[in-house]
Amino acid sequence: MKRPYFFEVFTVVNFIAIQIALWRISHAPLDTVLHSFTILLPVMVIQTVIGIAIRLAVLRDRREYFQAVRSKEWLADTARIIIFSALSVHTYGWIKLSIPVLHPTLFDRQLWDVDQAMFFGHSPNIFFLDLFSNPLALRFFDWTYANVFVASINMASIFFLSETKRVRLAFTNSNTLMWLAGAWLYMLVPSLGPAYRFPTVWLPLSAMLSNTQQLQRILMTNYQHVLRGEGVNIFLGIAAFPSLHVAFEMLVTLWIRRIWRLGAILFTAFTVIIFVGSIVTGWHYLIDAVAGLVLAGLCYLAFAIQRPRETFPLAHAPTD
């Protein structure tokens, strides 16, 4: 058995931390972990199988790849990545949900003011809304923001879970660090986001932002359940600073460019769409998106220094 990886230790430490923080109020993180596993583990296994199937269909040296994914070392690492990634998602969800209970003060007004200071006295949210005021443009961001993010999560999972190079461990380390550190930043600077704090800006645009506003209503309902101590969905927390949607797209771009240039181009486009879309739709302030980029860069550098570049697809290079 190999020594514990960073993502395993860091996930367990954060899981224990949020349960301790909530202990006098609730044992929910501990009580619901098996339920989260029953949802997340099958999804990640399926993503891994899909990734393997795709690689076997496109790689030139299928035999070498097939031998790599059949090895005990690769299978053991894959199981560890899947199990602790599921625990990381569970932990992240409970940190995010616990914000109104553990730190109920909101900093939306301050974040709005910081945005205006950064943007020479003007609100970036209003500026971008004016810039993309065409109904077609608003409907584009209304549809792409959630759908591109969900698609990118699945694509990145399929790609890295089926990878045979050490880069997948480095990505998992940095991805775990980013989401869990970001969750505690949520706790440090609690905020709902401009669409919730300044609804009069976005409510007149409901016809063009119907998908976004429906999802925002669902999340706010879950937020109210948290405040009332009712049953909650751990995947529907609300927090604005930093934007981990932007951070995730940037992090994947930074890692995938080392091994797959076409993938880097695709995720660069995703990063731009999510960055602009987060501001247009009112999910985030500009400072949230900028902080997301910085966080992604720092988490990437934490594990990328002195790590050699690798290429995709795998042809004749030895696997490890």
Can you offer a commentary on this structure?
The structure is a single chain. The chain is an all-alpha fold. The chain has one domain. The chain has 16 helices and no strands. The radius of gyration is 20 Å and the shape is globular.
Could you state the order of secondary-structure elements as H and E? HHHHHHHHHHHHHHHH
Mean pLDDT: 91
Percentage beta strand: under 5%
| Outline type | globular
Specify the structural class. Answer: mainly alpha
Domain module tally: 1
**Strand tally:** 0
The proportion of residues forming helix, as a percent range, comes to: over 70%
Global Rg: 20 Å
Largest sheet, in brief, is: none
The low-confidence runs, each spanning 5 or more residues with pLDDT under 50, are 312-320
Descriptive terms for the model:
320 residues, 73% helix, mainly alpha, disordered C terminus
In short:
Helices cover 73% and strands 0% of the residues.
SSE diagram, text form:
Elements: H1 6-22, H2 28-31, H3 33-58, H4 62-70, H5 72-97, H6 99-102, H7 108-118, H8 124-131, H9 135-161, H10 167-188, H11 194-197, H12 199-202, H13 210-228, H14 244-256, H15 261-280, H16 286-304
